[in-house]
């Protein structure tokens, strides 16, 4: 059993293989957080939390003369609001009498086999049946607001999932102004916050800062998880490195606006709260109604590398679903950077023939194929073929592509509408807009109101129509602007604060329906590249286009940053043209290949413009990729930048789970004359085994490669890269 209740001490202890989590019900009915860290063997750790008498931290009335007891200083499993805890609250409420408080007291708990589910929301699942659930009921004695805390324990993964379900158990409506999913208290230690920020074309750049006194917030108000701030963060010991030190990650299975607040309070204790929505979030709970907050994955490890590996495994095997979750992903050619809006059947077929000849497996017809779509000002919403561009029809084009031996995939952006479209002319009120205000345009398009059932149904039927009518194996689901002007015509005034959240629930319903209806189709998520790269979307689309920036040197930062939480198999990465279309940088085809292979691999360039030599190189690249694919997609991933940063290089390594094979990747970011040696130490090998290196015929021990390291031959030229293969021989 990974969850145990100690009746005498009133502690609940969760154990995974390497971590332990403890909470306790105290004498005033408060559910206290006791411990999250390395396994200590189930001991009662309550004595860690002595209480001192604190000025200006008052005591609950019922505590009487117990002045050392204050909700403002105790570590709480899920903090109350408005009743004497002045730190970041887990929830915010407005009660029917106008008061803004809730005191959550322990009522009961239950431990059961299997992982709870969250209907309508993405949630980690448990294919091998080893997970367990802990459910704890907290209640406000005055209003009857009930919060069910859910914990899903995945012992082998060292992951605990968490969320909270809010229920109005009283007789009056309650407005939730904040509905946190998780509250995590870290009472001791000095912590850094590692978060992943950026912008369009530079997503998920790591930034590590000391947790300051006060509150640090990252989040999104864009209705999407956003390019700017990813819903994944790490709290790590100030001394933590890739290999050592306490590291705790929180990953949100949520694709909408969010808030992640990290507070260091007066005595140095740190609290993190993750909640959906922004300041405009309001959700009315009528008596008997429920609200389920999205799920969070919580994991803890020694060192950032191990933490990443735990998340990789969890996301790949327990978040992603469907036939492609662990299967070979077809090497694709995408038409976007090859042709942009210039979609002509002869040009597309020519590209497909060339791609097939090189060993690619899937042709993706990107933007520009549908009715009215000559540029990005028109057509969104009208999901039928553009007869001017494709006079013989889409069907005939697909047949032609299938005859080359390639599978066929299609780009769509179903959540959007152009004003210049039949859909908008028929249903102008389906677009999000506030009455009497002209809405913001983004890429000259509007956002459909996915909180409305009829809009969801329209998208489901329009997409099902395409998938039934045509021979489609892959869908790229794009989303190319932020959500603004949140106002839904079907919600009453007092419920408008629900529109943004309901939008995301609507999106999830659409994706759930389509992925269940078409299980053989590979869905790839996208949002101007990686603007909605989150574990919520990965539940429906096992890969996401990582960034619109395809420059391999920029991708080192983007994919490297993404690797802290998300596995390689989820990151769409393509070899594109050189000079690169976004940066103008010229890089070798080999470098572009090596970087894209550390992702869901494909190509996105006009093959007709390449020389015979380049085509031959691509043919070999694809063959090599196939040989290494399992290692790349499922091997343990090690960032090696700590050794290479000083040399302006990036390095990363894949090691098979049984340590029999490894693949080292190095890219020089900035070549220098008379450069220092590029030396790095490998990781994760068997120290006692001997490894042959394919590229130089030498044999070295795992110990020599890990402790002595490896010095690369001199690399010169523009952005050179190497891949080195190691195979255990005895
Ligand atoms: C977004 C995507 C690109 C491409 C274009 C098409 O920007 O991220 O890959 O599909 O849209 O308009």
Describe the structure in your own words:
The protein has 730 residues and is of the alpha+beta class. It has three domains: 3-319, alpha-galactosidase from lactobacil brevis (Beta-galactosidase, Chain A, domain 5, Distorted Sandwich), CATH 2.70.98.60; 332-631, Alpha-Beta Barrel (TIM Barrel); 638-728, Golgi alpha-mannosidase II (Immunoglobulin-like, Sandwich), CATH 2.60.40. The chain is 20% helix and 30% strand. It contains 13 helices and 39 strands. It is globular, with a radius of gyration of 27 Å. The model has no long low-confidence stretch (mean pLDDT 97). The structure holds alpha-D-galactopyranose. Alpha-D-galactopyranose binds at residues 336, 366-367, 376, 411, 478, 480, 526, 528-529, 545, 548.
Question: What is this structure's SSE topology?
Answer:
Layout: E1 3-6, E2 11-15, E3 19-25, E4 31-38, E5 91-94, E6 105-113, E7 132-139, E8 145-154, E9 159-168, E10 174-179, E11 182-186, E12 191-199, E13 202-210, E14 214-220, E15 229-237, E16 246-252, E17 258-264, E18 270-276, E19 283-285, E20 290-292, E21 296-302, H1 304-319, E22 332-334, H2 336-339, H3 345-358, E23 362-365, H4 393-403, E24 407-412, E25 416-417, H5 422-426, E26 446-447, H6 453-469, E27 474-477, H7 499-517, E28 522-525, H8 535-538, E29 543-545, H9 552-562, E30 571-576, H10 589-597, E31 600-604, H11 612-634, E32 636-639, H12 641-644, E33 649-655, E34 661-668, E35 679-680, E36 690-693, E37 699-701, H13 702-708, E38 710-711, E39 721-728
Parallel strand pairs: 22-23, 22-31, 23-24, 24-27, 27-28, 28-29, 29-30, 30-31
Antiparallel strand pairs: 1-2, 2-3, 3-4, 5-10, 6-7, 7-8, 8-9, 9-20, 9-21, 10-19, 11-18, 12-13, 12-15, 14-17, 15-16, 16-21, 17-18, 25-26, 32-33, 33-34, 34-39, 35-38, 36-37, 36-39
Helix pairs in contact: 6-7, 9-10, 10-11
The structure holds alpha-D-galactopyranose.
Residues 336, 366-367, 376, 411, 478, 480, 526, 528-529, 545, 548 line the site of alpha-D-galactopyranose (GLA).
């Amino acid at each position: 059993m990974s969850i145990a209740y100690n009746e005498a001490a009133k502690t609940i202890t969760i154990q995974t293989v390497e971590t332990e989590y403890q909470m306790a019900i105290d004498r005033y009915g408060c559910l206290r957080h006791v411990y999250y860290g390395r396994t200590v063997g189930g001991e009662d750790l309550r004595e860690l939390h002595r209480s001192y008498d604190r000025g200006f931290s008052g005591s609950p009335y019922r505590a009487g003369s117990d002045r050392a007891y204050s909700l403002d200083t105790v570590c709480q499993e899920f903090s109350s609001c408005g009743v004497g805890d002045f730190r970041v609250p887990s929830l915010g409420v407005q009660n029917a009498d106008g008061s803004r408080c809730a005191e959550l007291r322990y009522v009961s708990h239950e431990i059961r086999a299997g992982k709870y589910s969250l209907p309508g929301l993405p949630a980690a699942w448990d294919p091998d049946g080893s997970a367990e659930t802990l459910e704890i009921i907290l209640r406000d004695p005055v209003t009857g607001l009930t919060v069910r805390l859910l914990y899903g324990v995945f012992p082998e993964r060292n992951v605990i999932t968490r969320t909270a379900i809010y229920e109005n158990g009283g007789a009056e409506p309650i407005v939730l102004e904040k509905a946190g999913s998780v509250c995590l208290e870290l009472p001791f230690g000095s912590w850094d916050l590692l978060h992943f920020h950026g912008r369009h074309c530079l997503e998920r750049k790591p930034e590590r800062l000391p947790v300051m006194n006060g509150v640090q917030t990252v989040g999104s108000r864009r209705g999407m998880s956003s390019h700017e701030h990813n819903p994944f963060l790490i709290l790590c010991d100030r001394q933590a490195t890739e290999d050592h030190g306490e590291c705790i990650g929180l990953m949100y299975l949520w694709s909408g606006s969010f808030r992640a607040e990290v507070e260091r309070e007066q005595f140095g204790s740190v609290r993190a709260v993750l909640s959906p929505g922004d300041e405009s979030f309001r959700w009315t709970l009528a008596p008997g109604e429920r609200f389920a907050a999205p799920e969070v994955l919580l994991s803890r490890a020694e060192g950032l590398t191990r933490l990443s590996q735990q998340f990789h495994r969890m996301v790949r095997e327990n978040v992603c679903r469907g036939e492609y979750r662990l299967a070979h992903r077809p090497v694709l050619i995408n038409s976007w950077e090859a042709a942009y809006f210039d979609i002509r059947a002869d040009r597309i077929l020519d590209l497909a023939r060339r791609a097939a000849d090189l060993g690619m497996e899937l042709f993706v017809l990107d933007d520009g194929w549908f009715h009215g779509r000559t540029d990005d000002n028109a057509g969104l919403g009208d999901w039928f073929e553009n007869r001017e561009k494709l006079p013989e029809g889409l069907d005939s084009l697909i047949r032609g592509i299938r005859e080359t031996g390639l599978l066929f995939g299609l780009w769509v952006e179903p959540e959007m509408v152009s004003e210049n479209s039949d859909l908008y002319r028929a249903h102008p009120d389906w677009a999000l807009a506030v009455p009497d205000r002209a809405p913001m345009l983004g890429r000259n398009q509007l956002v459909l109101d996915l909180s409305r059932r009829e809009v969801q149904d329209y998208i489901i039927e329009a997409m099902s129509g395409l998938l039934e009518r045509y021979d489609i194996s892959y869908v790229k689901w794009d989303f190319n602007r932020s959500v603004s002007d949140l106002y839904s015509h079907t919600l009453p005034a007092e419920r408008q604060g629900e529109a943004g959240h309901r939008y995301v629930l609507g999106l999830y319903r659409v994706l759930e329906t389509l992925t269940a209806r078409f299980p053989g189709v590979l869905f790839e998520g996208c949002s101007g590249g990686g603007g909605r790269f989150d574990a919520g979307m990965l539940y429906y689309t096992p890969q996401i286009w990582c960034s619109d920036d395809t420059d391999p040197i920029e991708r080192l930062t983007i994919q490297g940053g993404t690797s802290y939480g998300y596995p390689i198999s989820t990151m769409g990465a393509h070899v594109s043209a050189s000079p690169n279309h976004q940066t103008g940088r010229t890089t070798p085809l080999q470098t572009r290949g090596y970087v894209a292979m550390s992702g869901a691999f494909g190509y996105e360039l006009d093959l007709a413009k390449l020389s015979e030599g380049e085509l031959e190189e691509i043919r070999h690249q694809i063959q090599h990729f196939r040989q290494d694919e399992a290692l790349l997609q499922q091997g343990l991933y090690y960032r090696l930048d700590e050794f290479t940063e000083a040399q302006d290089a990036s390095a990363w390594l894949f090691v098979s789970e049984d340590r029999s094979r490894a693949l080292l990747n190095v890219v020089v970011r900035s070549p220098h004359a008379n450069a220092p040696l590029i030396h790095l130490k490998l990781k994760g090998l068997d120290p006692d085994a001997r490894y042959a290196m394919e590229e130089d015929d030498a044999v070295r021990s795992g110990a020599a490669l890990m402790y002595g390291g490896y010095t690369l031959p001199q690399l010169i030229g523009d952005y050179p890269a190497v891949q080195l293969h190691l195979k255990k021989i005895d």
